[in-house]
Structure prediction request, 341 residues.
Amino acid sequence: MDEELLETESHGLEITSAVLHVLDGNHHNLIYSEETLDLEEPTVSAYVTRHISRMRKDIRLSPGTFNEGSSFRELAGKYFHHELSLIEFSHQALESFGTYLSEEEPGSFDVLFADYRFDDVPYIGILLLEGKPAVTHMTDVTENGIINTISAGSAVLPPSTAKLHSFAVVNLLSYEIEYVDDTKWNHGISVINEKILDSTGGISKKEIVETVKMITEEVAEEYEESPVILMSKVKNYIASNVSEGLPVSTSELAEEVFDARPEMKQAFLKRTEEHQLPEETELPKASVSRTMRYQRIRTDTGIELVFPTEYFANTQYIEFVNHPDGTISIEIRNIGRISNR
Prediction:
């Protein structure tokens, strides 16, 4: 990740305290730390900060709701009111997960518990750092002299640039949950929800975007319109709103994409209701990637083209022409130079 971008997006983030527990279920070795991490140490501080920063803006985040009687919610309340230390809170909150790793599904994770503030709002972050086997060199001295060889090392932590598969954020004021649990657990369970938080999950921001795109294509095919043009409008609307810090609204998107076809707009909105999509969704700016800013198309003649999505609405640069015989022509205009890529 670009360091300048990271610093900008981390504005307002303050790590108050953090603790790292080692839960090696593969060897039934559960080591709960009795001290918090030294956040004055630059390497430790940078590692924790970068993971928390990346976690907060992950488009895979799903909303969650604590189940009635959730022990995690009760522990979080006690921690917030200073009845428990971070060490005590995290240890008790991870007991069920540690048992799961040792008895039900062997695995090895370092678990990072972090108390942090973002714009003065207190949060708890729980990050599952899956250990990866490492191969390293080893130097030994024999009777014949020094020998360098290759040895299997212990599991290493994922780098701060790695995409984590399982983590959660809990707002300590509202008890709102956001989580990601993409680890391939046995029987398809969500360990974050079932073994740590005792909560129920919802649809992720990524799933909302993908569902909106799917519905757009279905409506386009139903009304015999070009899904390419409509999809470019969808992407352009999302990219524009997110870059301006505005939420994505299904009703505004429908108005923008189907402005000339009210019947398509109604069909689109009906299907968003059927899929129980929220009216508004806040998306992190980092989610507006190259795939959202550009539209890639492939013709049946084998030609592939990539265009900025905003160009589809501007005939100064590109125009699609539908012919009576059902074929389509694409005219690209105002080209000053062509280069090989």
About this structure: Residues 189 and 310 are 41 Å apart (CA to CA).
